[in-house]
Every structure is written in structure tokens, then in C-alpha cells.
Amino acid sequence: MKRALYFAFAFACAGALLIGGCKKNNKFNGYTQVSHDGASNRTFYLNENSVQRDYSGHVSLSYLIEEMDGKYSLLEIATDCRNIAIRETGTRYMRNGTMLNSVPGDSTPVSLDKVPELRPVLLRACAVATGLRSFVGQFEIGKAMVLVFGNYSPESKTSSWDDLAEYGQQLSAKSGTVSVILDAPVQEAGITKHIVFTSTVPMGTPFSCHACSPLISGFVFVNKVGKWSVENDQRDLSLGAEWGQPPQARIIRLGPDRFGVISSRSGGGQGYTSAADTILLPSNGGFSSLSIPTEADNSGACGGMSVFTPASPCYSSRASYEFQPGTNPELFDVKVINSGTKLVDGKLFENDAITVYSFSKDKYLPKSAQPRLASNQKDTTPLEPQGGIAPKVSAPVKPAACTMGSNSGVVHVKCGGDNKSVGVYISPFFSSTVVGKVACDERLWVVSSEDPVFLKVCTSAGVRGYMPHSQVK
Predict the structure, then answer these.
(1) Are 120 and 44 in contact (CB under 8 A)?
(2) What is the C-alpha to C-alpha distance for residues 142 and 152, in angstroms, rounded to an integer?
(3) Cystine design at 267: which of 42, 156, 214, 242 (Cβ 3.0–4.6 Å)?
């Protein structure tokens, strides 16, 4: 898809070159010099009049690369302005305008990290594209939706997304209905902005199954000189949801003068439940994210549910988080505090690391991990990465210096040198309730009332291990 203006430009500029025309910074008619790559000794130009943005948020543009000996290439490229780009086949010319050869394009999108020499051109083009989408006056969600989706119905308060492109596979649809799930005004550095999140479901098709997850998109509209334009645009935030319903979204302060969004979701199936919060920070034309698993357990699928699965331990993990000043003066660090247990390769581990994340290079990166161990633990064993890190946690062990005795369904526990005991009633059904506390500050949960009996022995820092029926005397 090469435009006719390329060839018109090529021969027009070639004639000008022969007569000494096309001066510096105006050497190629309609193209503006953007950058020079010293490593390859090539100069990059952008045709700002060619910049277009479609309603999926993609920006297309024409650019030119001039070589040291005067040869040049005319090219087209499309980008999402954040992570990827795809180049079409271009044409390379001699200084006098004679066509030399074609320049191969990309069969699939490439990461912008692979073409760093093009980043200045793409950033300039994306800035131009942002200026093309604007409206004046008071902020109205209808006008904002028209800006990014091309239409809006005040009656249904929805937009139609007629070409889902690469997002269609997720929704199994070619078109979708878009609803607003968050519209919040914020002030950053004295500039008024609106953060808008939307949810898209297939148009005219039932979408309420357990695995049905809407497509969540995020936008930031900024008001400059009375004109509203799009500053951030990301169509697929990959947040996940169930039953066709979007996750909850709310505004959160992420720095002294920076705002973002926290998206919360929960779900479960087959005896497993989980919940997670995702922090979304407007960054680099889109959103940078940090996902924090806040809850996870297998209470409906672990060994306590059946005599046939006593070797499958029950785990239950929780995480809280807080924001604190860090090395980045513009953004807070995120401190994640884990507690409880997790299952790794069929074995139970404490999950008590405290991890601090700092924002750097458009990402939240783990800055430090501060594992907390049970008082009687010394050795540590790394777990699988969670949230981008591999915290060190204590390995599973059997309770130390404890004895148990049973009488008529009541289990008595003696722990440590205090020789004090507590009665624990074995209920006929699985329970996760705290049923006793012993002198050495250990708490007991009934894990299974089946034979063999398992008691999960925990400290305030997390699970220490199990006391099976064989130890009940």
C-alpha cells in the first residue's frame, strides 16, 4: 500500500536535487528531519501530513531514511505508540531519483526495542496523532467516546466498536458494544485530566459464561489550552474477569502529583478461589501495570475434603499493599506484604516475603524482598516467582516439641516445655476456623475430620507443618 505521493515526491525532489534545490531541513519536500543515527550514519525524516490514527488507536505514517551517500528510502509504518510496530515494503532510490530496489517489510509486528533508531520518528508521529483527536469546551463522556471509537449513543450510553481487529479472537466477535466503567477527573501539575476505562463485549451475542472476560480499555484525556485530546490510549489492558462482567476500577494516588487506577477482580472454580488487584499507571502513551495477588486458596479441593486426597495440603495466601516514598520522587514505591501459605510441587511453603516495587523504565520492578521466617526456621527455599520476584521462604517442617492425645473426639495438644494443653474439637465437616491456641503461640486449624486426621499447625508467621493421625496417641 504505497501512496502515489511517494513517486511524485521522488521525481520532484530528484529534479530539485539536480539543480541544487532541497536545502537542509527542506531537502525532501513535505518531510521534516527528526533524528540522525550516528552508528549507521543515517538521517530520519517524517511526513507529518501522512500521520493518521484509526479508531483502534493505531498510528500509521510515512517516513524517509537518507543514507550518507545521498541514497534514500521511502517507507510506511504502523505502531500502537507503545510496544510494537510493523513496516510495509518500501522503495530505495538513488540520489537522482532512480529506483534501486525494494526494502522488505515485516511479516509480523516487531518490538520497538528491536528498532531503536525509529523511536524518535514514531514518538513524533504519535504526538502529531494525539493532536489530531480533540474537542473543545467542557469534558463530556459522549464526545470523548466519539473521539476514540467514532460514535456514541446517549440513549444506551454505549459505543459500537465495528472492527475489533486483533482483539476479536478474545471476544470471538468482529464487533462489540462498549460501555464506560470509570470516568474520573484528576489534576496533575495543574493540568485537568479525565481517566476513562471502558468494557467491551460482543455485539448482539450472549456473553455471561464463567470464562467470558470483557475487553477492558484505558484512556487519559488531557485539557490543554481549552482543547481535550487523548494522552494515553491502550485498548487491551488484559485485566481478566468472569461471567461477562468487568472488574471494579477506582482512582488511586500513585505519587505526590500522579494518579492511576486500581482494578480489582475475584473468581474461582473447581474448589479454587483467587483475587487480585492490578495497579495501572498512565505511562508511555498507554498504561504500565503491577498485578498483586491478594487472595488464593484451594479450600474446596484440598485433602480435607476426601479420604482419597489427604496428601494434598490446603493452602491459603493473602497479600496487602501500601504506598510509600521511594527513590523516584514522582511516584511512590509499592510495598507488598504476603502472608499465609502456597503450594509448590505438591508441598506447602510459607509465603511471607515483603517485596518493595519501584517504578523505573516504564515498569514496576522489584527493588527488594524482605522475607519473614517462622521463629524456629533457619533454612530457606526459594519459591516460584510471584509478582516478578522469587522470594525466599521457609521450607515445610513438622511441628517441634509437640505431642497430641485424643479422647472421645477431642484432641489435646501439649507444646514446648510449658506442658500446657488445649482441647480441639474435631468437627464432622472441614473447617478453617481457629479452634485453639497453645502456650507456645501456635494455632491449630482442623484440616480434615476424615481418617487419617490432619491438623494444620500454624504460627503467626504462617504454616509450620502438619501433625498426622499417626502422631495422635
Answers:
(1) yes
(2) 6
(3) 242
Three-state DSSP class for 116?
helix
Kindly indicate the confidence band of residue 303, based on its pLDDT and cuts at 50, 70 and 90: low
Averaged pLDDT, 348-373 = 80
Q: How far is the C-alpha of 284 from the C-alpha of 38, rounded, in Å?
A: 25
Residue type, 34: V
Average confidence score pLDDT of the chain:
74
> Residue 435 CA to chain centroid, in angstroms?
40
CA distance 84 to 96: 34
What are the CA-CA distances from residue 447 to residues 154, 305, 314, 455 (Å)? 55, 9, 8, 5
Q: What is the pTM of this model?
A: 0.61
Residue whose grid cell is 480435607: 304
Asked if pLDDT for residue 403 goes beyond 50, the answer is no
SS3 category, 294: strand
Q: How far is CA 279 from CA 171, 189, 220, 327, 330, in A?
A: 24, 21, 15, 19, 16
Mean pLDDT along residues 79-95: 91
Question: Can you tell me the distance from the alpha carbon of 170 to that of 156, in angstroms, rounded to the nearest whole number?
Answer: 24
CA distance 181 to 217: 10
Cα radius of gyration (the chain): 30
Is residue 36's pLDDT more than 90? yes
What pLDDT, on the 0 to 100 scale, is given for residue 15? 33
Q: Which of 332, 344, 248 is nearest to 298 (CA)?
A: 344
Q: Which DSSP state fits 467?
A: E
Q: By three-state DSSP, how is residue 325 classified? A: coil
- Identify whether the C-beta of residue 281 lies closer than 8 Å to the C-beta of residue 258: yes
Phi, psi for residue 238 in degrees, rounded to 5: 50, 50
Q: Which three cell numbers stand for residue 335?
A: 510495598
Checking phi first, is residue 230 left (phi over 0); if not, alpha (psi -120 to 50) or beta?
beta
Q: What is the DSSP letter of 245?
A: B
Average pLDDT rounded to a whole number, residues 386-395: 32
pLDDT in tens, 210-258: 888 999 999 999 999 889 999 999 998 988 788 889 999 999 999 999 9
Residue ranges and CATH numbers for the domains of the chain are 4-131 (2.40.128), 402-471 (no CATH)
From residue 375, how far is each of 83, 379, 419 by CA, in Å?
Answer: 46, 11, 19
